């Protein structure tokens, strides 16, 4: 089973990569869904603060690779030859996936703070109404989980500073490359 991981700062374009993969027929497992599910079960609204607190709780109880370990059986259950996993936040998670899936490939998505902040303003998800300070705080929280170290371990890096069309073309080409875990 080939597993492709996506890592990037908040609003760098990871969700767009998932959409492109689905269009190519590659199933996508979103690590954040495990957190959203648990926040919902706890009867809490899916705010940035609640999602962050639940992630922190799982990591402190089960270890820094907790969400990866919760996600591995979900990936395996797809029984697909290629699966994309969205939501990697730390180097411990990368290590867990690399250990379980020898053909694991990590793709890093990179966008500047200004670009990410401008795109968030247009997205309108329930946890998106952020000031620049709040986005900085979200960045800091995720960097604290080892996001920078995970990005540094990427096998491929895509800079997402241009148009969506340019990004889509670059990601499609990458996902179709056999060396990147692609389908051909
Ligand atoms: N190149 C681009 N041009 C214009 N808009 C873009 C581009 N890339 C992504 N976007 C938009 O920016 C927003 C953030 O992207 P996306 O949701 O994919 O980020 P993310 O990394 O999944 O974010 P998060 O970490 O918060 O889940 C989305 O509305 C997306 O459609």
UniProtKB/TrEMBL annotation:
Primary gene name: fliE
Family: Belongs to the UPF0200 family.
One Pfam family from the record: AAA_17
Keyword Nucleotide-binding: yes
Protein name from the UniProt record: UPF0200 protein HQQ74_03650
Gene3D superfamilies per record: P-loop containing nucleotide triphosphate hydrolases (3.40.50.300)
Keywords: ATP-binding, Cell projection, Cilium, Flagellum, Nucleotide-binding
InterPro entries: NTP_hydrolase-rel (IPR022970), P-loop_NTPase (IPR027417)
Key word Disulfide bond present: no
Annotated positions binding ATP: 8-15
GO molecular function, one term: ATP binding
């Amino acid at each position: 089973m080939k597993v492709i991981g996506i890592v990037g700062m908040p609003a760098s374009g990871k969700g767009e990569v998932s959409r492109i993969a689905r269009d190519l027929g590659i199933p996508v497992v979103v690590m954040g869904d495990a957190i959203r599910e648990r926040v919902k079960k706890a009867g809490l609204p899916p705010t940035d603060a609640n999602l962050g607190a639940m992630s922190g709780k799982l990591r402190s109880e089960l270890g820094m690779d907790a969400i990866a370990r919760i996600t591995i059986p979900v990936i395996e259950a797809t029984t697909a030859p290629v699966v994309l996993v969205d939501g990697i936040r730390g180097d411990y998670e990368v290590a867990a996936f690399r250990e379980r899936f020898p053909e694991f490939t990590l793709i890093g998505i990179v966008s500047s703070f200004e670009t990410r902040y401008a795109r968030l303003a247009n997205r309108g998800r329930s946890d998106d109404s952020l000031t620049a300070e709040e986005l900085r705080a979200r960045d800091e929280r995720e960097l604290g989980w080892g996001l920078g170290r995970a990005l540094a371990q990427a096998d491929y890096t895509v800079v997402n500073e241009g148009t969506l069309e340019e990004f889509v073309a670059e990601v499609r080409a990458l996902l179709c490359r056999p060396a990147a875990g692609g389908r051909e």
